[in-house]
Amino acid sequence: MRRRSWLVFFSLGWTLVVLMGFWQAERSPVYGAAAMGLQEDFIRVAEQVMPSVVSLKAVRVVTVQPWRPPEDFFKGTPFEGTFRESGPSQPIRRRQVGQGSGIIIDSRGYILTNHHVVAGSQQILVRLNNGREVQGRVLGSDPRFDVALVQVQAQGLKPAHLGDSSQIRVGQWAIAMGSPFGLEQTMTVGVVSATGRRGLGQGHYGDFIQTDASINPGNSGGPLVDINGRVIGINSMISAQGQGIGFAIPINLAKKIISPWLR
User: Fold this and answer.
1) 10-residue averages of pLDDT along the chain (263 residues)
2) Domains in the chain with CATH codes
3) pTM for this structure?
4) Which of 52, 115, 141, 146 is catalytic?
5) H/E/C letters for each residue in 30-78?
6) Is 146 a catalytic residue?
7) 142 and 150 Cβ atoms separated by less than 8 Å
8) Burial grade of 216 (CB within 10 A; 0-12, 13-18, 19 or more)
9) Among residues 52, 116, 193, 236, which one is catalytic?
């Protein structure tokens, strides 16, 4: 009887091992399918939103005062007369080009971006998703909240869908788009790390969205979107002290600021 019981127990054990193997084999494709499904979500968001993302170049002409040594700098040296009479004496005008991003929010050519991207510019060049470059003009800009509205005259523009930033939750997907370092149509993925961040930038308001989606110089003014491709924020700044710490202006706040400028 003991031998028979042992054989029964042994058979049951092997049966359980075999069944577990089949169960694991059946489960693994499920994990793969889930990963592929998430990948398809990211691809869908890119295809949906990228046509609405633009690259901005803000052209500024600045006046630079030439450096001249103090009058007595070379006094008593063989160079006293030489350097006193040489070198530029008039201010020099130089052309500077700043790089940023924006998001089309209306088919009439309205583009949402940051104030610091367009501030002080004499000319704004907007590069669309199809590679066409058009002139833009600032309709309004608010330095307190770092929000600006630019308009271009172009046909066939595809506006992005604006979400509701009051509904975002910490831990949800956050996708940043823009032109970091001039690399147009770049997309990075992370999560919403926190909401309502205060004491940042100039300290004019305290409702930043924090994300670990990679944001770099040139991303400013580009959209932060959710997994459904809806704009939840406008990328604004990064933390110089660390990596994976970026901030965006909530889209609800941006919509409120630009509403008087819409025609």
Assistant:
1) 52 55 54 85 97 95 68 58 57 83 97 95 95 96 94 96 97 97 95 85 69 93 97 87 86 96 86
2) 52-67+92-152 (2.40.10.10), 157-261 (2.40.10.10)
3) 0.77
4) 146
5) HHHHHHHHHHHHHHHHHHHHHHHEEEEEEEEEEEECCCCCCCCCCCCCC
6) yes
7) no
8) middle
9) 116
